[in-house]
Amino acid sequence: MASRRRSIELVGIPQEFSLLLEDHDESFYGEFPGLSDSSESDDDGDDVPPPEKRQYYAASDSDEDEFLSDHQGEEQTEQDIGEALTASKVRDWQSIGCGCPKSNHFAPLETVLLETLVISLARLKHRRQQFKQYILGELASSVTAGFADATTTRTRFRYTVLGKEVCRAVFLDVHGVSAKFLKPLQTLVEAGSSEVHAHGGIGRAAHNAIPEEQRRAAVEFIRNFAVINGIPQPAAPRGRAQQPPVYLPAFQHRVYVHEQYCQAAGENSLSYQSFRRLWKTYCPDVQIMRPRSDVCAHCEKLREKIKRSKTEEETAASVKLLREHLEAATDERDYYRDVIGAVTEDVQENKKPQTSHLTFDFAQQLELPHHHRQVGPLYFKVRFRIQLFGICDEAHKRQVNYLFHEGQTIGTDGKIAHGPNSVISMLHHYLEKHGKGEPQLHMHADNCVGQNKNRYVIAYLAWRAMVGLNSSITLSFMRVGHTRCSVDGYFGILKKKIRENDVDTMDDAVKAINESCEANVTQTMDWEWRDWKKYLGDRFLAIKGIRKFQHFQVNADEPGVVTVQDVCFGKETPLKILSSTTPPDSLTQDNLPVALVPGGLSESRLQYLDKDIAPYLSEGKYPTWKSTEE
Taking the CB of residue 320, how many other CB atoms lie within 10 A of it? Predict the structure, then answer.
């Protein structure tokens, strides 16, 4: 087979990309004369160039460029996330292969160089004209010619990546293009062309371009409106934007802002579509706040203070306080994720892991009967209530959901359902029946003082370490208002399942939760309530200022001592909480608090349920409270 090479001068390739090419095998990339940085960009096609290159409006002169440099916000990118996805994609390529029956053409390519090449090609792809010119040069440098018969010559291409010969599938994947994109460029090479034809509209102003004065006025209005009504954020979200966003209240949506703009601009106002396009292009940092529930009260207080600030000094001081608060919440969130990651790694690598991580919390109570087509009168009834307490083991992706109805609580008619006795009794049952006996235990919970963050829960953990059930236990709390965690996610999954089904009895609720996802399992009432509050209160002391601490740790080698921290990795302060009148030897695993008998349902409550709730049960369903009474 005869071989021939065609030398094509590549024009318009950016300088920063040419430097990357020089680092790789010269036999593949060859000599590329004429490399120069060009500002031309082709916006014809599916790939959208960055804002500064978009040809939405009239061609800019020097005054317009100066104006845009003052007012154009940073484009929101996800560069860090994109590079992480690229690394994952390259690993998948090399492990799965290219699909060729004889060999995997991804295998000879060095991983680090391949990742760098893919990322660089993705960036060059925004400059469509230059990207096409680069692909054209690669094809031209590796074209060969063979004779199909005595009169016909067929052109063939040797596809190479990083100096290694590969199949066409690998070439397309690495460059992120399709065969449809490649075919026209191959045709140009076969015709002997050395340059991609430029689109005729490049550099020309559109016939319907927005005049500069209108554009300037619209952008200035958006900026001024944000200064007056917006809430500036202390920093940009990680992995998303380079410039801190400014949030407008949810009710001041884009339509509302455009109406205000039209009133101010009068006859010179732009249409809503043009106004919105200008906003997206030049003011991407001005965003609309989404309606949310259960937000952090401290964050909202600071945001309201920023909004009402009258001077720049007041605004700066409030923004600083908000930044500090958010940084503290982010640190606690990162610590939560790091602990889960370390425990998960221990579980995956060891047959007998030494650590475990649990997150526990109460969900909103369920009310029965619940139908996916709910009749109106039921909304005004006090239905039969079921409490839901979840304990999530993140490393094993499993959550045990404790279900008990109002006839099974410590108090009568559903009272005393969320106190320390309830929480500790269910925690103790879980660790004894569902735990795997890991000596080191990490736990996270919300900051509810009545349920989790109190002297009795901390004393219970100290008791477990003293009697030899665990060698060390750490209980951590995330910042108030920033406590969303895995257990809440599984609650959301099971609540969605319940909303989509008819749930009349406890058995129906158990079935719906078990079917919601593989991780959700149920635990019905087979444990005992115990008076842990009195038992621990007589033997352990209260912790002064417990609300200000976020981390509590107990160890078996320091009986009766809890180490507290106000922030993660902060100063550790040991506190002795074992009462001086309690000998450590008096505490044993078998010496448990006295059992408490559930309060049951009162006669008046039973009559109400029979009269006002039972008629709404589906046909054939037996009331749960009847089985409890019997």
Answer: 12
Residue 470 has pLDDT above 70, yes or no: yes
Please tell me the number of Cα atoms within 13 Å of 361 on its side-chain side.
22
Q: Report the residue count for the chain.
A: 630
| 338 phi-psi bin (left φ>0, alpha ψ -120 to 50, beta other) | alpha
- Which residue type does 153 have? T
pLDDT-based confidence at residue 240 (cuts at 50, 70, 90): low
pLDDT in tens, 384-419: 999 999 999 999 999 999 999 999 999 999 999 999
Amino acid residing at 568: C
Cα–Cα distance for residue pair 95/89, rounded to 1 Å: 10
Determine how many CB atoms are found less than 10 A away from the CB of residue 327: 12
pTM over 0.70: no
DSSP string, 559-624: TTEEEEESSTT---EEEE-B-TTS-GGG--SS-PPPEE------HHHHHHIIIIIGGGSPTTPPPH
Coil, helix or strand at residue 147: strand
pLDDT at 587 over 50: yes
**How does 427-449 read in b/e, with b if 16+ C-beta sit within 10 Å?**
bbbbbeeebeebbbbbbbbbbbe
Rounded Cα gap, residues 161 and 175, in angstroms: 9
222: Cβ–Cβ under 8 A, 6 or more apart, which residues?
257, 261, 278, 279, 282, 283, 286
- Which positions ≥6 away from 213 have C-beta within 8 Å? 268
Q: What confidence tens digit (pLDDT) does each residue in 57-109 have?
A: 333 333 333 333 343 333 334 455 566 677 778 888 888 888 888 888 888 88
For position 31, what pLDDT does the model report?
35
Radius of gyration of the chain (CA): 33
* Residues 531-553 pLDDT 10s: 999 999 999 999 999 999 999 99
The answer for residues whose C-beta is within 8 angstroms of residue 161's C-beta and 6 or more apart is: 28, 109, 114, 117, 170, 171, 174
Strands 398-405 and 595-596: what pairing?
unpaired
